[in-house]
Write a structure and sequence with these properties.
about 160 residues; mainly alpha; 2 domains; 6 helices; about 85% helix; rod-shaped
C-alpha cells in the first residue's frame, strides 16, 4: 500500500538534499580548498546548476501537492462536520414518536423486510417533514404496513397461490 503523503515527504527531502549537495560542491569544490581548473571547474559548475534547479523543482512540486492534499482533507472534514451538525439539528427538531418511526423504518430496511430502499427513504423523509405533521406520519405508517405485507408475500412464494 502506497502512502502518497509519505512519498511526497520523501520527495521534499530529496529536493532539499540536492540543494544541499549543490551548496557543498560550491563550498568545497568551486570556492574551497580543491583548486579545480579547466574542465573540472566546468563540470562542477554545471553540476551545481543542475542540482539546484532539479532540487528546487522537486521540492516545490512535492510541497505544493502535499499542501493541496492537506487543504482538501480540511475541506472534507469541515463538510462532514457540517453534515453531522445538520443531522443533529434535524434529529432534535423531531418529536419522540417521529424518532421512533424513523428508527423502526431504518431497522426494517436493514433487516431486509422492506422490499425497496426507495420506499423506506420516502417513509423516512415524509415522517421527518415537520410541515406535513401527523398526516404524513400516518401515511408513512400505512406505507410501511403495505410494504411489509408485500415483502411477506414475496417471501411466501407461489405456494400460497396453488392451494384451492
Amino acid at each position: 500500500m502506497k502512502n502518497p503523503k509519505f512519498t511526497l515527504g520523501i520527495r521534499v527531502v530529496a529536493g532539499c538534499y540536492l540543494i544541499y549537495l549543490a551548496f557543498v560542491i560550491t563550498r568545497d569544490g568551486l570556492l574551497g580548498k580543491e583548486n579545480l581548473h579547466g574542465w573540472q571547474f566546468g563540470v562542477a559548475l554545471v553540476g551545481v546548476i543542475v542540482f539546484v534547479i532539479v532540487g528546487i523543482l522537486i521540492a516545490y512540486q512535492a510541497s505544493k501537492t502535499l499542501m493541496a492534499m492537506h487543504r482538501e482533507e480540511k475541506i472534507q472534514a469541515a463538510e462532514e462536520a457540517a453534515e453531522q451538525a445538520a443531522q443533529q439539528a434535524m434529529w432534535q427538531q423531531q418529536s419522540s414518536s417521529e424518532r421512533f418511526r424513523n428508527m423502526k423504518s431504518l431497522a426494517d430496511l436493514e433487516a431486509g423486510t422492506l422490499s425497496s430502499a426507495a420506499a423506506a427513504e420516502e417513509m423516512v423523509s415524509d415522517a421527518a417533514d415537520p410541515e406535513n405533521g401527523q398526516d404524513a406520519a400516518a401515511e408513512a405508517v400505512e406505507t410501511a404496513e403495505v410494504t411489509e405485507a408485500e415483502a411477506a408475500g414475496d417471501a411466501a412464494g407461489p405456494a400460497d397461490f396453488t392451494e384451492v
